């Protein structure tokens, strides 16, 4: 097999092992108003309530302005899923994710700031986040 064939075979194997087809997993809106759009859906473990997870997130306002980003800080966050350690929008957004998956969340602002919207965001009705599930430890 020549190098070109080998490279093509490698790309095909990668494509088969990681379902990165957002249209096949169209956006879905939860009753809370959170919209979830799958970006990368790998095979593997799925995050469930009580699991300990570590994620990266990159949050922007509708105009694209970054309001917070663990990616830019280089500091992912860890929490127990579904027990209220993080805003409801993150709990709901991570639930059901595959390990190493990536999602876009479009969240009503109240789901991300349960204690009240910061003054500089009082005109904003939603925030957008891209999240990536980096680690998953199943609940005992």
Molecular structure report:
With 140 residues, the protein is of the alpha+beta class. The protein has a single domain, classed as Chitinase A, domain 3 (Roll), CATH 3.10.50.40. It has helices spanning 3-17, 70-73, 88-94, 109-112; strands at 18-19, 28-29, 35-42, 52-60, 66-69, 77-80, 102-108, 126-137. Strands 1, 2, 3, 4, 5, 6, 7 and 8 form an eight-stranded antiparallel beta sheet that branches. A hairpin with a 5-residue loop joins strand 2 and strand 3. The longest helix has 15 residues, at 3-17. It is globular, with a radius of gyration of 17 Å. The model is unreliable at 3-22 (pLDDT under 50).
Question: In a nutshell, what does this entry contain?
Answer:
The chain has 140 residues and is an alpha+beta fold.
Radius of gyration: 17 Å
The CATH topology is: Chitinase A, domain 3
State the name of the first-level CATH class. Answer: Alpha Beta
Sheet with the most strands?
A: 8 strands, antiparallel
* Class from secondary-structure proportions: alpha+beta
Number of domains: 1
Give the distance, in angstroms, between the N- and C-terminal Cα atoms: 47 Å
Shape call:
globular
Question: Which range best describes the helical content: under 10%, 10-25%, 25-40%, 40-55%, 55-70% or over 70%?
Answer: 10-25%
In the predicted model, the low-confidence regions spanning at least 5 consecutive residues are 3-22
Task: Give the H and E element order.
Answer: HEEEEEHEHEHE
Contiguous helical run count: 4
Per CATH, the architecture is Roll
